Automatic annotation (TrEMBL):
GO molecular function terms listed in the Swiss-Prot or TrEMBL record: O-methyltransferase activity
Domain O-methyltransferase C-terminal: 141-275
Species lineage: Eukaryota, Fungi, Dikarya, Ascomycota, Pezizomycotina
Cross-referenced InterPro entries: COMT_C (IPR001077), SAM-dependent_MTases_sf (IPR029063)
Protein name: O-methyltransferase C-terminal domain-containing protein
């Protein structure tokens, strides 16, 4: 069998090998390495890469599913081409190691397309955000978990200009300090064993966070937030609805992170497991929906 070196291999050579059923490991690995280097936009690179190895992984593992977050087709592809340093890393860690997180953060500023500011959007659903943030029980009005650069908090501040820096807390694993003059910025890695550092805030907001997480990891995060909540606190979840509009995104979350987009029934099941209940929900055909959760109350009204 002909074996090609990395210095001689080209996509055409690899294709000819494949046509003859003689594709060697060197040809295939080199072709795939070069292919992934040519893919640049964060909105396409990882999904295309993961999709290429989805069926291969399923067949090789006797269709083992659901995936674990560090054992998705993303990692499986790197394992097959001999990139062992990425084979057990989370997809976000891989992007960080490749120096791609800055471009990804810029992409995420728009959160997959804008559907109005957060205050205007929830108002259109009939949700009273003003009431949710008007309580006097805590100086911390909103904690934005995984809020990147804090765009959502700045939208809230523009709509409610009386809110000050100490009222708005931005939490992220790699917090961007660009809006540090307007927001209180905290480092928090919800993946480790540390609890939610802010207790008793009026609102805990999570925008496009849970869909990156498997059910177990999503419950783990939800439990941490629930433990920090008081009876007056609310959790606001901003996610796309599980419908045909976002079928491709649902599949992408599965192959990249072992995550998923969730339905009303799934949110209610998760809430009940951590001592919360869904008290408001809207699932539009397009754009982020809204799910509000509060502490679960008993039949006599006690929390």
């Amino acid at each position: 069998m002909t074996r090609h070196t990395k210095s001689t291999i080209s996509p055409l050579t690899w294709w000819r090998c494949r046509r003859r059923s003689m594709a060697c490991c060197t040809c295939k690995r080199t072709f795939l390495r070069r292919t992934v280097r040519r893919l640049n936009p964060p909105s396409s690179t990882e999904p295309v890469w993961a999709a290429a190895f989805l069926m291969k992984q399923l067949r090789d593992t006797n269709f083992e599913y659901p995936f674990q977050e560090n054992k998705t087709p993303t990692q499986y592809g790197y394992k097959l081409i001999g990139e062992e340093r990425f084979a057990n890393e989370h997809t976000y860690s891989i992007m960080h190691m490749q120096g791609r997180m800055p471009s990804f953060s810029r992409f995420m500023e728009g959160k997959f397309g804008k559907f109005g500011t957060m205050p205007d959007r929830v108002k259109s659903f009939g949700y009273d955000l003003g009431s949710a943030i008007s309580g006097k029980e805590s100086d911390v009005v909103i904690v934005d978990v995984g809020g990147a650069r804090g765009e959502m908090l700045l939208e809230v501040k523009a709509a409610y200009p009386h809110l000050k820096k100490e009222n708005l807390v931005l939490q992220d694993f790699h917090p961007d300090m660009v809006n540090g003059e307007s927001l209180t910025i905290q480092h928090w890695d919800f993946k480790d064993d540390s609890p939610q550092p802010v207790r008793g805030a009026l609102v805990y907001s999570l925008t496009h966070i849970y869909h990156n997480l498997s059910d177990l990891e999503a419950l783990r995060l939800m439990k941490k937030v629930a433990d920090a909540m008081e009876p007056y606190s609310t959790m606001l979840i901003h996610e796309f609805a599980k419908n045909p509009t976002y079928g491709k995104m649902h599949a992408t979350m599965i192959t990249l992170y072992a995550g998923r987009i969730r339905s009303s029934r799934e949110w209610k099941q998760m809430a009940a497991l951590v001592g919360l209940e869904v008290t408001f929900e809207v699932y539009p055909v397009a754009g982020e929906g809204l799910v509000e959760m509060r502490k679960l109350r008993t039949a006599n009204g006690a929390v």
